[in-house]
Design a protein that fits this description.
With about 170 residues, the protein is of the alpha+beta class. It has 6 helices and 5 strands. A hairpin with a 3-residue loop joins strand 1 and strand 2.
């Protein structure tokens, strides 16, 4: 029998999640690398998902603790969509995915227990779901989140520089 060791998953499995809202607390922590916050705007920020479906799985969230879609202001929506566009462009340049799943989580039941609106973008490749998650309930991720973070921060700089050059 083969064993796949993924000790970083124990934090999630053992319920190590804090009761505080990560979308409120992590940006205030001012340690973007530790919290995998790869981009900040005036109204929203982007961070990698600590328990990703695939490498490059990211989330975009307003700084304000917003629980209902109707409570988002126009500036927050516009900046969210701009950051989503830039993030997808950066991930495409880094990982060459063949598609993305994009969704907005509303409510604690939809958002990993966090009642704070956020957008997910999950890079996808043909065949990225194999027997491991289906039979063994285990997801194999090819790159450590810290490496993904470092590469994504650099890619975001390039994407934003290119956008500025076009203006």
């Amino acid at each position: 029998m083969r064993r796949l060791w993924a000790p970083w998953r124990m934090e999630f499995v053992a319920g190590g999640r804090k009761d505080t809202c990560i979308f409120c607390s992590k940006p205030k922590d001012n340690d973007d690398r530790k919290n995998h916050i790869f981009a900040r705007g005036k109204y929203v920020f982007g961070m990698l998902n600590t328990f990703p479906y695939n490498s490059g799985h990211l989330m975009i969230s307003p700084y304000r603790h917003i629980t209902e879609i109707g409570a988002m202001e126009g500036e927050e929506w516009l900046e969210s969509l701009q950051l989503l566009k830039e993030s997808i462009s950066a991930i495409e340049g880094l990982m060459e995915p063949q598609g993305f799943n994009i969704g907005v989580n509303l409510g604690a039941a939809a958002g990993g227990g966090f009642d704070h609106i956020h957008i997910h973008a999950v890079p996808r490749w043909r065949g990225d779901t194999n027997f491991m998650p289906v039979l063994a309930e285990t997801k194999v991720l090819p790159e450590h989140i810290d490496s993904t973070y470092d590469r994504l921060v650099e890619a975001m700089k390039r994407v934003r520089d290119e956008r500025e050059e076009k203006k």
